[in-house]
Design brief:
CATH class of the largest domain: Alpha Beta
Number of helices: 24
Number of strands: 19
InterPro entries: REX1-like_exo, REXO1/3/4-like, Ribonucl_H, RNaseH-like_sf, RNaseH_sf
Strand content: 5-15%
CATH architecture of the largest domain: 2-Layer Sandwich
CATH superfamily of the largest domain: Ribonuclease H-like superfamily/Ribonuclease H
Helix content: 25-40%
Number of domains: 4
CATH topology of the largest domain: Nucleotidyltransferase, domain 5
Largest sheet: 7 strands, mixed
GO cellular component, one term: nucleus
Mean pLDDT: 77
Radius of gyration: 37 Å
Strand order of the largest sheet: 4-19-18-3-17-15-16
Protein name: Exonuclease domain-containing protein
Keywords: Exonuclease, Hydrolase, Nuclease
GO molecular function: exonuclease activity; nucleic acid binding
Length: about 700
């Protein structure tokens, strides 16, 4: 009874709730009909999310719901627009310019004069910043490589040109960027010409941004003529000079070889440059003084080196092997590096600390031995020989690089390993973990080179139309045929009742330890079964070979060192010549004219003369408006002479001066220098390379930092 009474009390409330839930949907449908194109808020949000994901890398387009403002209408709307709207439009301009700069586009041009959706711009800008944050560049200075000298025109120019143009120019030796210089979005150089008392003065923003760290520079940087002349002219690299010189030389003088297959297989001079092979220089010596033309009878020698890492942080030679075409070993020896070893790279080289104990052979001995045993028309064979020759500090004009002439990818940037090439074309397994021997690698490269000479230039190279898939299919069929033939032979032997023939096993010949006539041991211990270092060991040690005179011939007339020797005078090019192949890189030079050089002006280079503006502050305002469109911004500020300083609100707070007392303008000038530099740096893009030079006739200092 008690329960039924409570139910009767709740019935009116329950009827009211039921009526509410029945009437509410009907009322919503009448007063707020569902739009067919829009759908629910969640559906609209999901569709926008999918569209943003699909158009992430497409050109930004304005969205329909927002009313666009045309660029030409913005100035007309300014008197009627609120301050917040003007700030929003200016911020949107800045965001778009930064986004275009990060994506490497030449500049911001709104499609049909319409601004894109600001939310879309901010989302893409956020993604671009996050991607840059994952690989945030870091700057590191190695001033000790300057040998105790101050940085001057050359060092500053090298730094700016390297970060602006890229690897095509010389990398500065005193400054390093990691992981890549391409991570730097733009370079901003601010040169401030001022009296000496302001060079080392304390500036609020500079001290905070650069953490009170500066670099003392050479006094010659004050000469703006020489400074900007060095900046506008880029030194041509040695490799580029060699390439141009070889291209201009007559074909007979450049390559005095008769037409034969071997001459087609060796790398051309252009390929040697592109693949970073060493050329004769002050630190690189040629293998011969004079070379002879290549013929069909020119001998091939296969070379392989093993390296370690020393205290110089460079790869240095620890073992070298050289073999002939018939597989006989010319020499195989360990080499003692001149510096202390910090990493033996045993996993790759097979060389251990115990093996190098008591070794007296030096790099100079190896160089003399190579020059003695190689004939003038010798062809060096190997896989990625540029690293071996760099470790040897030698150069050679005739190179048959197995990694380049066998190409399975169709791309010149990818090389198939020697292990895979040997397995595919020679049906042999090397570097299988049972031990490592450089003679084994040399012999594998030699067999591949002989196969290339036998089959021709096209064989094994997808670059020349060789069909890799067809070869694999045919190769597999040959393996199947061989297996079927072996099975058939085994069945026949079983049917006849004869015992099956044992497979021939390649046994390692038992050889005693050989010694040279001088008593030096020949070769090294090897655990690889059937290795050529045991089958056909060397007959003379490398120390005795180094004493032999270098082999010559009457036909040896080609001077490799003279052919590639660069001029003593430095070759220069204007900076605009390096922008022709760049992806929309633009430069801006805000500076007065100089007498020694003409600042180039064109589609990719903008010139702004400070003297064309009413005062320096107007000039800076103009520079900041489109600074983010340029990969390099050079801004010159002059605080010498009768310079017009901007209005400073702090002047009103100063006490009235007594009669005859002159106002102190030094504090006002310091604030002006600090404010104008701050405005320029704050406008620069994130991850910009910022260089500020404060220069006077007596002293010059530089501030350098990445804006993060």
């Amino acid at each position: 009874m008690l329960l039924s009474g409570r139910i009767r009390l709740l019935l009116p409330l329950m009827r009211q709730k039921i009526l509410y839930f029945l009437v509410l949907p009907i009322w919503l449908c009448v007063h707020h009909p569902i739009q067919e194109a829009g759908g629910s808020k969640s559906a609209v949000r999901d569709r926008r999310h999918r569209n943003d994901a699909d158009d992430r890398h497409d050109v930004m387009t304005p969205t329909v719901p927002r009313k666009p403002h045309r660029v030409e209408e913005v100035d007309e709307l300014k008197p009627r627009m609120s301050l917040n709207n003007l700030r929003a439009i200016n911020q949107q301009r800045k965001d778009i310019a930064e986004l275009y700069l990060r994506e490497g586009r030449p500049g911001y041009e709104p499609p049909d004069g319409i601004f894109p959706d600001p939310k879309e711009v901010k989302q893409k800008l956020k993604e671009a910043r996050m991607e840059k944050l994952l690989n945030q560049p870091k700057l590191r200075f190695t001033m000790e490589k300057l040998g105790g000298t101050y940085i001057s025109h050359t060092e500053i120019s090298d730094l700016i040109q390297y970060f602006t143009i890229g690897p095509a120019v010389k990398r500065p030796r005193w400054c390093h960027i990691a992981p890549k210089p391409q991570r730097v979005t733009q370079t901003v150089l601010i040169r401030v010409d001022c009296p000496g008392e302001f060079v080392k003065a304390s500036y609020e923003f500079l001290d905070k941004f650069f953490e009170r760290q500066h670099i003392k520079a050479h006094e010659e940087l004050y000469d703006r003529e020489d400074f900007f002349n060095n900046l506008l002219h880029v030194p041509v690299s040695l490799q580029e000079q060699i390439k141009e010189k070889l291209a201009k030389m007559d074909a007979v003088n450049l390559d005095p070889r008769e037409f034969c297959l071997k001459s087609e297989l060796v790398l051309s001079s252009t390929e040697l440059i592109d693949f970073e092979y060493p050329f004769p220089s002050d630190t690189i010596i040629p293998t011969k003084e004079l070379y002879a033309p290549i013929t069909n009878q020119s001998p091939m020698f296969s070379l392989d080196c093993e390296m370690c890492i020393t205290t110089s942080r460079m790869h240095e030679l620890t073992r070298i092997s050289l073999i002939r075409e018939d597989g006989s070993v010319v020499f195989d020896t360990l080499v003692k590096p001149p510096r202390e070893i910090i990493d033996y790279l045993t996993k790759f080289s097979g060389v251990t600390p115990e093996m190098l104990e008591g070794v007296t052979v030096t790099l100079e001995d190896v160089q003399k031995a190579l020059s003695a045993v190689l004939p003038p028309d010798a062809i060096l064979v190997g896989h990625s020989l540029e690293f071996d020759l760099k470790a040897l500090q030698m150069s050679h004009p005739y190179i048959l690089d197995i990694g380049r002439r066998f190409n399975l990818s169709g791309s010149t940037k990818m090389r198939t390993s020697l292990k895979n090439l040997s397995d595919l074309f020679c049906d042999e397994s090397i570097q299988d973990g049972k031990g490592h021997c450089s003679v084994e690698d040399s012999w594998a490269a030699m067999k591949l080179a002989k196969l290339k000479v036998e089959k021709g230039l096209v064989f094994g190279s997808c670059l020349f139309g060789w069909d890799y898939e067809a070869y694999i299919k045919k190769h597999r069929q040959q393996i199947r045929d061989e297996l079927e033939a072996e099975e058939e032979e085994e069945r026949e032997s079983q049917a006849s009742g004869a015992e099956p023939a044992n497979k021939r096993i390649k046994l390692m010949p038992k050889t005693r330890v050989a010694h040279c006539a001088c008593g030096q041991r020949l070769g090294l211990d090897c655990i690889i079964e059937g290795c050529q270092c045991q089958v056909s060991p060397p007959s003379e040690c490398i120390l005795c070979l180094a004493k032999h005179p270098a082999s010559t011939s009457e036909g040896a007339t080609f001077d490799w060192k003279k052919a590639v020797r660069s001029e003593s005078a430095t070759t220069l090019r204007t900076i605009d010549e390096y922008l022709k192949g760049s992806k929309g890189k633009k430069l801006m030079f805000g500076m007065e004219a100089i007498k020694k050089a003409k600042v180039p002006v064109g589609e990719l280079i903008t010139r702004r003369l400070p003297s064309e503006f009413p005062d320096q502050q107007d000039y800076i305002e103009e520079v900041c408006m489109d600074m983010l469109e340029y990969a390099l911004c050079v801004v010159e500020l002059n605080f010498n002479g009768d310079v017009v300083l901007p209005d400073d609100p702090n002047d009103e707070e100063q006490e009235e001066l007594e009669d005859g007392q002159l106002p102190d303008t030094s504090a006002k000038m310091k604030r002006a220098i600090n404010a104008q530099i701050e405005q320029l740096i704050r406008t620069a893009a994130k991850y910009s390379m910022i260089l500020v030079m404060l220069t006077s006739p007596d002293e010059t200092i530089c501030y350098i930092r990445l804006k993060t």
